Each structure stands twice: as C-alpha cells, then as structure tokens.
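Problem 12. The chain below contains 508 residues. Write out its predicted structure in token notation.
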Amino acid sequence: MDSGQKRLQELGYKQELKRSLSVVSNFALSFAIISILTGVTTTYNTGLTYGGPVSIVYGWIIVSFFTMCIALSMAEICSAYPTSGGLYFWSYSLAGPKWGPFASWITGWFNIFGQWATTTSANFSMAILVQVIILLATGGRDGGYYASKYVVIGFHGIFLLMHGLINNLEIKWVSRLGTLAVIWNCIGVFLITILVLAVAPERRSAKFVFSYFYKDNGSGIGSSLYVFVVGLLMSQYSLIGYDASAHMSEETKSADKNGAYGIVSAVGISVVIGAIYLLGITFIITDVDHVLSLDNDARGYAVAQAFYDAFKMRYGSGGGGIVCLAIVAVAVFLCCMSCVTSNSRMAYAFSRDGAVPLSRLWHKVNKRDIPSNAVWLAVVVSFCMALPYLGSSVAFQAMVSIATIGSCISYALPILFRVTIARNSFVPGPFHLGKFLGLVTGWISVVWVALITVLFCLPIVYPVTSKSFNYTPVAVGGVFTFTMTYWLLSARYWFQGPVSNLGSSPLY
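Solution.
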C-alpha cells in the first residue's frame, strides 16, 4: 500500500480502481485536456476580435499568473485529500460539519457541469475544425464543400462515440494516449510555429505584436478596457481542465504527492508552450480584417486562414496549412479523449456518494476496473449539450462560457473554504505552500474567479439582440438554479456529503 492508497483509506474509501498511473501519466492527462493546440486554435478568434495582439499577448500573461495561483492552491488541497471526487470532496472536508454537505453539493455540480461543457466544447471544436479542413481541401471559397450544421453534429457524435470506446479500454491504453498527447502537443506547437514563421512571406513587426490594439471589430463596445476584458476569454478557456490530475488520484501511485505535481506541472508547461504558439500565430497575421472575414477561404476561422495563406502565398498552394491544421486536429482528438476520462471519474466519484440520479448505475465498475457507465454518461450528455447549435450558432460560445466559468467556480469554492472556515484547521499533505503563501495564493485565486465570473457575463455586442445576446449568465444561472432547486426540494434531506465505502463516514 503506497502513500496515496493509505491516505485514501484514512479518508474512508477502499481501493476500487486500478492504481497504475505514474506522475508522468497523471500530468499527461491534465496537460492533454488543457491542450494548447486545442484551446488557443479554437478560441483565437475571440482574442483577435476583442483587442487583437494586445489582448492576446498581455491577456495570456495576466491569465497565466492567476491560473498558476489557482493551480498551486488546488495542488496543496489535492495533496491533503487525494480522491477521485476531487473538488467536491475538498469542499466537504474544508467547510466543516455544518456546511460540508451543502458546500460539497454545489461544488460537485458546478464541477460536473463544467466538465460536461468542456467535453462538449472541445469535441464540438474538433467537428468545426474538420468542417474547415474539408472546406479548404476542396477549394475554399471557390466551390469548396462546407458541411451543414447537421453534418457537423454528426461529426460531433462520431468523435464522442470513438472517445467512449477508447475510454472503455484498460487504463494503461488511456495512459499511453495521454502521454502521446503530451508529446504531440509539444512537438506540434514547435513544429507548426517554426513552419509558419519560416514559410510566411510577410511577418508582422514586434511593435505590432506587442502594441497593436484592434478595436474596430463592429461590436459596438466603445471602451478599450471592456474590449480587452472580453478578449481574456481566449486565454482563460485555454487554461482549464487541470483538475483532471485530482480526479485521477485513485488511479495514481503516491497520489498525495504526484496528483499535486501533475496539476502544477501541467499548468506551468502549458503556459510556456502556449506563449510560444500564440506569438508564432500573431506574427503571421498580416491583415486582421481578412483572417476574420466570413468571406475568406476558411469562412472566418482566423488560425486556419493564417496557416492557409502562409503556404499559399509562398508556394501557390495552401496544402501545408491544411497539414498544420491536421496536426491540431489530432491534438484536439486526444484532448477530447482525456476530457471524457476525467469527466467519467468525476461522475463515478459523485455517484459513489449518491449525488447523481441513478447513482448505482454510474458507480458500477466493469471487469477492467473502468467506470464504463460513467464513460457513456459523459458521451451522451456531451452530445445532447451540443444540440442547441442546430437552432443557434451562439451555442458553442455558451459551451465555452459554461466550461470556463463553471470549472473556475468549482476550483474557487474549496479554495475559499480553505482560506476562511479551514484557515487554522487545514492539515496539509506532502505538497504544501506554507501558511502565509497558501493564504495569499488562495485569496488571489478566489478574487480572480469572482471577477471573471462577472466580466464574462457582460454583453459582447451592442446593441443587444436575440442573435448577439451573451448567453453566459443564462447558462451559469441555469446551473446554479438547478443545483439550488434540487438541494432545497430534495437533496438537503438526504445528501450528507461523501459516504465511506468502508462502513463509516470519512471525516465526521
């Protein structure tokens, strides 16, 4: 029995999943979900539209600092409580006997909704990317095939089915694909960055990249600060998902140490890799209006158009740009696979404690020690969450918003309890920041999440119409309303927080 399994038993749980992941494998799954090639490529339009290079470069620096504070705070708590339940178990443990069940309930539901939305948005991003790749490969605006929204939803469903099948294999195969995702993202970022910079016949100056502010985006927003703030969504969305290291704790050797290392290293390396990739793309954007135009070859997909133009202007063919996009597509596929893995472990743990309807079904583990039903739950829910796209194209933006804000709220809640209720009673694990630094990073994290939750709910286009309405507050409010209504009408009478499977309550 290693230290992680011993600590799990102390918290009230017997070992049910196969504990075979190393610190590298644990890190790899979080890194694969963050997936710089996925996050940056699919949301670069947002950063470029709202502020351009200034929002992209300086927004990345700002968001990276605050994200690292959150990661450090989460890592410290993960070291003390290495369970698959992750954040909701932390909230229960830190909020005390009186508030523990409610804190656990609201954290768990925000986390699981955030994960479902992350899986949906990442997988749907791949469907859109494949749509654009096919369009460019068949001629672009000059007669190329542009898949309908029904075909895109079909792509989305096929990819989810593939992720579900992969996640029903033994965990060692998922681990190997997670390691491949690390290698693919790192090599892919460097390869694409070097290629496009070497091939592009024209490159922007450093002055443009570090000082040009793009404000003429037709959004109707007059304030430069407001525009900059909206542009931060690109960076914040690109740096979520690192809670996967916590959800894989019960399958990680010495998880009381390695889970924490997985969180911090995944964020730290992603920050560096992301900065390189962002600078490489931004240096080849010679005409902002052109790459954002819906009339270009990529139908307004900025990164795709920039890659395509770089090779076409040099060689007369954009084939090399399509190859670069194919490299990105593989990274997105591996990201989505890891999203389903993390999502299923959260559903497994939350169901183990009876919080999800039909909990007995989602908590079952098959003969390969995989929570198979929880895997298919993630697949089905993620497919359904994309269906609103058939009625409105703003659905994807809503998914990005739920994924970003929902996940960040679930990250911040246990940190809030750590720096308030459990300020003097928290007993750290092997990874700790010390009393003073732990409180400082904790408060910084909580304030930042509160700030972006408000900012990302603001309108992004004026005047506000049904087509331009920012559905973020509706989506986040819907999650909150569901969680509170369920609690008040039912769960408060029976949900007592995490339930030991060793015959006694894990903490109280």
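Discussion. The mean pLDDT is 87. Students who got a different answer should revisit the alignment rule from Section 12.3.
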